[in-house]
Amino acid sequence: MSMHLSDFNELPSHVWPRNARRNNDGTVTIAGVALPDIVAEHGTPVMVFDEDDFRSRCRDMAQAFHGAENVHYASKAMLSTRIVRWVKDEGLSLDVASLNELLIALRAGFPAERITVHGNTKNREFLQRCVAARVGHVVLDAPGELVELNEIAAEMNQHQSVFVRVTPGVDAHTHEFIATSHEDQKFGFSLAAGDAWQAVVDAHQASNLDLDGIHCHVGSQVFDADGFTLAADRLLELFARVHQELGVQLPILDLGGGYGVPYLADDSELDISGIATDLITAVNNKAAFLGIDPPQVVVEPGRALVGPAAVTIYEVGADKNVQIDDDRYRRYLAVDGGMSDNIRPALYGADYDARVVSRFTDGHQKSTRLVGAHCESGDILIPDFACPADVHTGDLLGLAVTGAYCYPMSSRYNAFTRPAVVSVRDGRAELMLRRETIEDLLSLDVEPDVH
């Protein structure tokens, strides 16, 4: 059973947003705004982002990696024009992984030269938009993409800066679906098979491409420097070969993201300063050993910046005990959202910290399964946690660390509408994304012509 703090009223400070507090009346506030007040205005489910939490994590990451220019926010974690502007204000760069993510970033006024474009398959329109916008870098992920991008850049009479994505064969000890650096997967060029070297040579020789560096990504929810250091060690061997055989010193080593965050009270907090120090030291030492200039180390955090900044608030609905054998019962609490706004528990087995945010609780804790409202037996948010017995229908329940990969992966399953998203700062709440409505759903319907 996923056990939380013995006092269910406490908010673990390393899990909940940095500006979350519980008032004397039992209500929880973030940045001075009471969560029940947000619910009264915007309904449930509702996602609440602590703007200063996000900004402070941007600054922490920038300091750890010796400059904001070395930190690229991975927008796939959570993207809106408001968040893009926060990233811009903090001086970070931005990663996008689709054409529409690129268009959102540009619509928000983000400088194209600070955008790096990812994607294991990019169609011609996507590549044309990249070149036309003059994005900072396109990460090459397939041989045909390299050829097509070079042709497009030539047609537009431009040069496009690129990275080559390499799979260095490093196991970051993460879930199979979010491990991205082993050989048998869809991303990048294999280092062991020689594909990475050939891609580097082809990019170097391409008339309208400028090869600036190598990119890799070792996985997600990584809490130490070991996987990054091993990947860097292998990639620097490639840097040295490029120097020796092509006469070029590549300036940038992009080691991707994947930095972990605590989801539960007993999880450890990420020591990003320590990881950055260990990683940069290892890169500098290896480069010196190989006799090459140490490259600029670039990282791409997403979850580590935006994940802990948000909570999702639900209203508790059904409360019932279900007999599971002759002498055992399981308590089920249902909320008015679920897998449509947070698919991660069903997809990855992700776990979450849940607290009542509308009042104090004082009941005896009992094993409880927190489920969603969807017509799906797998719609389980927390399979087993210690929940006070006095939690009941109508209470407001908050799940922490829902800022990353929840809204971007949301759906309209059972014709649910996506939740409202609100940002809070200095005692004020502002709507970031409005709640979808039934009119939004019906707006896609096309009625047949009747003659």
From TrEMBL:
InterPro entries: Ala_racemase/Decarboxylase_C, DAP_deCOOHase_LysA, De-COase2_CS, De-COase2_N, Orn/DAP/Arg_de-COase, PLP-binding_barrel. Residues 52-306 form the Orn/DAP/Arg decarboxylase 2 N-terminal domain. It catalyses: meso-2,6-diaminopimelate + H(+) = L-lysine + CO2. Keywords: Amino-acid biosynthesis, Decarboxylase, Lyase, Lysine biosynthesis, Pyridoxal phosphate. Specifically catalyzes the decarboxylation of meso-diaminopimelate (meso-DAP) to L-lysine. Belongs to the Orn/Lys/Arg decarboxylase class-II family. LysA subfamily. This is Diaminopimelate decarboxylase. It comes from Corynebacterium propinquum. The lineage of its organism: Bacteria, Bacillati, Actinomycetota, Actinomycetes, Mycobacteriales.
